[in-house]
Amino acid sequence: MRLSLIFIMLILLPVATGVHAWLFCRENLPVLTQEALKRLREAGVSDPVVDVRFFDIAITGEAANPAAREKALAAIRSLVPLRLAPGADRLHVMAGLQARLENENLFLSGWLPEGDEAGNVHHILADLRPDLRIHAKELHSAPEVRWPEGIKLPLTAGSPLLKSIVEKLHVPAELHIRAKDDAIVITGLLPATEVKEELVAALAEVAGGRVVDPSALKASPHVLTAPFAKPGALAAFVRRFFELPPPRSFDIGTDGVPRLQGLATRQMESAWLALLRPVTGAARVDARLTLLPSPYHFPGHQIQTDLPPEVLDPIREAMKHLQLVFENGSARLTAEQQTSLASLAPALLAAGPALRLVIGAHPDPSGPAPVEKKIGQARAETVLSFLVEQGVPAGDVSAVVFDPVPAGPSSSVFTPGSVEILIK
Questions:
Q1: pTM score, two decimals?
Q2: What is the pLDDT of residues 326-344, one digit of tens each?
Q3: Looking at beta carbons, which pairs linking 345-353 to residues 24 or more positions away fall under 8 Å?
Q4: For the chain, which terminus, N or C, has the lower number of CB atoms within 10 Å?
Q5: Which CATH number fits domain 299-423: 3.10.620.30, 3.40.50.300, 3.20.20.70, 3.30.1330.60?
C-alpha cells in the first residue's frame, strides 16, 4: 500500500510541477514583463523590449548614457525571481554629439564608441572654424556605445552625426586691416586660403619696415562665400590703399559694406573706389577719408633729396611763411609777392640741383572744376616763371594744380586761390 502511494506521488509530482509552471507563466510572467518594461523606462531606456522565458529575461533598448544603462541593469537584476543571463543584456548607448557655441568657444558633449573618432571630430571642427577654441571635456567614449545605423567611418563634416553642429558653425566672411606706424594687423574670416595668402603678400610688398601680422586672419571653407573675397581684385585694392602712410584702416563687416579711413587726395579716392567696384559690386562704400591737396602734404612724407638738414631747414622755414594768395580770377603776382619770392631765390640756388620743388596751386572747391584748374595752372606757372627769372633751374621745379579740398577741418589749412611751394 505504501509502495503504491509512493509510486502515485512520483507520477503526480511532475504533473504538479508542470501545472505550477503553467500557472506561473500564465499568471505571473505578464506581470513581471510589464514590471521589467516599467523599470527600464524609468531608467531612461528608449524603445525597451523584454523577452521573459520562465525565469530567464533578455532585454533590448537604448540608454541615454552608460550611467543610465547601469541603472537599468541594476533595476532588472533586482527583479526576482527573474534572472538576467549572460549575453541577454542587449542594452546599448547610441552615439550622439551635441555642441554649444558661446562667443569664441565651442563646447562638445555626448558619447562615442571607443576609438579615435573623438579626436577626429575635434580635428574636423577645428578645420571648419579655426577661430574657435574647442572644449571636449564632456565628450566621452565607452565600449557600450555603438554607432547609429548607416554611419560610415571615419566621420566627415558631411556625416549625419555632425550635421546639426556643422550648421551652427557657418559664419559670414569679414575683413579688418589696421595700418599703424610699426605694424599692419589683419583680422577676420575668409572663405579661401588663396585670398588670405594674396592679401598677406600684397601688404608685405608695401609694408616697408613694418611688421605684417596675419595671425588673427583665418581662412576656412566653412566661412560663407562673400562677393568681396575675390582672388586678385581684393589684393589689388589693398596694395594701393596701404602703400600710403598710416594710420589707415579698411573694414568689411558682416553687412558687406566697405569702410575706409585714412588720408587721401581726390585722385586717390577715385582710384580706390574704382578698384573696389569689382570687389563689392553695387555696395556703397563708407569712405571716411581726410582729404589733402597732394601726397606732399601727408605727414611723414619722405622728400626726394639727400641734402643735409642744415641746408633744408632754413628753406622749409622760409617757404612755410611764404603767402602767395592771388586775387579772384587773377594769375598776376603782386609787388610784395615778387619781393618774397626774390628773397627766397638765393637759398634755392645755393641748395643746388639736388633740391627738387613742386609749385602747387590750391583751387577753390566751390568753383567750377575746369575753370579752377585752368586758373590754378596759370598761377603755378607764373610763380615758376618768376623763379626761373631769378636763376632757379626750371628742370628741378614742377608746376601743378593740387586737388581741391572740401570744406572741413583740414580745408582751413589750405587757402583757395593760393600757391604753395613744397620740397618733393
A1: 0.66
A2: 999 999 999 999 999 999 9
A3: 345/387, 345/390, 345/391, 345/392, 347/314, 347/315, 347/318, 348/315, 348/387, 348/392, 349/390, 349/391, 349/392, 350/311, 351/307, 351/311, 351/312, 351/315, 353/393, 353/395, 353/396
A4: N
A5: 3.30.1330.60
